[in-house]
Amino acid sequence: MINPQDRFWSEGQNYRGPSENPTTETYCNVWDWDQLRMVKIKGTAKLFPREEDIELSILAQFADYLSPEVRAITVDDDGLLTGVSTDPEEDDTLFLAYLPFSLCESLADCRTIQRSKLQELDRLGPFVDLVSYEDESGISQKVAFKFNVLNKPLRLQMAWDELNLLKLLPPHPNILPFDRVVLEDEESRVIGFTTKFIPGGTLANPNIPFRFEWLQQLTEVVDFLNLELGIMHQDIAPRNLLIDPNSHKIILFDFDRAASGKQRLYDGRDDVSSVVFTLYELITNDTSFSGIPHWDRNIDMVQSISEWTRNRELDSDVSKFRDFLNEWVATRRSDGDMERYLNAPHRLTWPELPAAPDYSVPFEMGITWDKKPNWVTGHRSRHTAMTMGQYCFRWERPPQSRLLKKGKIE
């Protein structure tokens, strides 16, 4: 089940007047990652001060009890529900035109599966479900299904890059294997992908003991990605590390922030720095540095701490972990490290994200200066797209708590 703290996300406060005036009409669009839908919450500026996200706790009270048709709710200054609306025009969800599989030439050799053949088993987190399906031999496969529901340029690019990178990565004992491309049923559009599922949770759980050999494996796979393939993961952290219960090896996953060479390479996100902060967190269980923006982090913040207080079970002394880490960092930080990365002998590359043809269809937006309909192209609301008859894949689903009560999720 999705962690309650991660379930809701606000797009911010929108004021129909001065935000300093407590009576100003205000609304907030809030995403519910459990039900995969957006709900508009309406009230006043008194209840919704800037950047405090009060709307998250408000929706949390009502989310599981709202009808699927509800597009907006109104609350008073105490956060109490005073009204609901099913008016489709209240829905500010943006239209997301998923790419037809036929336009994704880089994925043509991938195995595919229709979404209708995936049986939901659990909701692991935002944009990730645990599902099962029967393969061509009739054997049940349990996999993780990753998808994106947001029509935001960065999210679309991340989803495209991760899918293409995963299908290109050569088999590696410390990298989560790619499985299939997931297509919606009606028009065979690409809506996500599946990977092998490894049970047991991530190393973000401080109760999982940490072995010295896993640090060795982590540095080896980072060297392989950086120096052989020219790939920078850019999000190495305990939450993205699994331990395979069968092989007892560390497994790296979640490549949606990965860079290929200079393409989408960000300052402060290099994998060497991330390994340092990751090991520090794994040993000490101190997560304070994970909240610092990557551009403000420097490994000296933790390397300069003389004693890393152990707050996790380890199979070796802390000094053994730190000595190995320091030697590896010194090797990687030697002259030419970035040049070696940029000139990796087997760099993986893939085509840029294609433009979805759906956005070239004109739609009416307001009127021109001479009172005529103003026709434009580009991104549009889901309500506008559906009114025009454009195909729109819908993600909405019942809350997991309701399905669990009915016994529909294992």
TrEMBL record:
It is found in: Chromosome, Telomere; Preautophagosomal structure membrane. Its EC number is 2.7.11.1. The keyword Kinase applies. PROSITE patterns: PROTEIN_KINASE_DOM (PS50011), PROTEIN_KINASE_TYR (PS00109). The keyword Transit peptide does not apply. One of its GO terms (molecular function) is protein serine/threonine kinase activity. Residues 1-22 are annotated as: Disordered. Coiled coil: none annotated. Residues 118-410 form the Protein kinase domain. It catalyses: L-threonyl-[protein] + ATP = O-phospho-L-threonyl-[protein] + ADP + H(+); L-seryl-[protein] + ATP = O-phospho-L-seryl-[protein] + ADP + H(+). Component of the EKC/KEOPS complex that is required for the formation of a threonylcarbamoyl group on adenosine at position 37 (t(6)A37) in tRNAs that read codons beginning with adenine. The complex is probably involved in the transfer of the threonylcarbamoyl moiety of threonylcarbamoyl-AMP (TC-AMP) to the N6 group of A37. BUD32 has ATPase activity in the context of the EKC/KEOPS complex and likely plays a supporting role to the catalytic subunit KAE1. The EKC/KEOPS complex also promotes both telomere uncapping and telomere elongation. PANTHER family: NON-SPECIFIC SERINE_THREONINE PROTEIN KINASE, SERINE/THREONINE-PROTEIN KINASE UNC-51-RELATED. This is EKC/KEOPS complex subunit BUD32. It comes from Penicillium cinerascens.
